[in-house]
Specification:
By secondary structure, this protein is an alpha+beta fold. The strands form four sheets. It has a four-stranded mixed sheet. It has a three-stranded antiparallel sheet with strand order 4-6-10, sandwiched between helices. β8 and β9 form a beta hairpin. α3 runs antiparallel to α5.
Length: 236
């Protein structure tokens, strides 16, 4: 695979890279939607993909301006204005997306999309991805990491998962960045459906602000461990 050009602007800027950790998480509030009232166990892996998924698809989240997000949801596909040459970041965690977009209040992120894509495409991206930062226990040295960055079209960051109040939890959530042919494949081949979940985000946020955390948790999308298998090249 040919080397990537210099880094370009992303559709949705990821959060700051988190350092890899090698021990299980300590107990905390589970971010698993639908079961978030149950505390996480000490066995919750620090690096684990949790998502809403079926036997053939997985749901990821992105946030855009209404000018881009509303046509995408209306047509079930990304419009021509969606720049396929840029790197785009997708997030399987609804709550991490809420943290990133401020419950759909940040400028340019007022429309939250749930994008259902094929597991085949998602798995392909994971298999060929590299970490967005150097990790000594994953890479032989910094030169090896730099070479992986130059020669791949997918990046992975592990950022602290969030509870319903957007506080950080002691385990991580996946962010997957796609560029070049993978960005185009995501938009034009892997996408099965696109839904506008902004009303859901606002309803949950409203319940949290009113103090009804239980009702808010009951509305969260159900996310369970995704069967990606060991991903040693991604520290998981």
């Amino acid at each position: 695979m040919s080397a990537l050009p210099a880094a370009r602007a992303a559709h949705a800027t990821p959060g700051a890279p988190g350092a890899l950790a090698g021990t299980p998480a300590t107990p905390g509030i589970s971010a698993t939607p639908g079961a978030s009232a149950t505390p996480a166990t000490p066995a919750t892996p620090v690096h684990q993909i949790r998502a809403a998924h079926t036997g053939t698809t997985v749901t990821v989240y992105q946030a855009y301006s209404p000018a881009l997000g509303l046509p995408a949801a209306r047509d079930g596909r990304f419009p021509p204005a969606w720049k396929r040459e840029r790197m785009t970041w997708i997030k399987p965690s609804f709550l991490w997306m809420m943290y990133r977009c401020g419950w759909a209040t940040k400028a340019g992120q007022e429309t939250v999309l749930a994008v259902e894509i094929t597991r085949a495409g998602f798995d392909r991206a994971l298999a060929g991805a590299c970490l967005s930062h150097y990790a000594p226990r994953v890479h032989a040295d910094r030169d090896a990491w730099k070479e992986s960055v130059r020669s791949t079209y997918a990046r992975v960051q592990w950022d602290p998962e969030r509870d319903p109040h957007l506080n950080p939890l002691p385990y991580r959530s996946l962010q997957l960045g796609l560029s070049g042919p993978l960005s185009r494949a995501y938009a034009d081949e892997w996408t099965v459906s696109i839904r506008d979940v902004t009303p859901l985000a606002r309803e949950i946020h409203g319940l949290l602000r009113s103090g009804d955390t239980g009702a808010a948790r009951a509305l969260l999308p159900v996310e369970t461990p995704y069967p990606a298998g060991p991903l040693p090249h991604l520290g998981a």
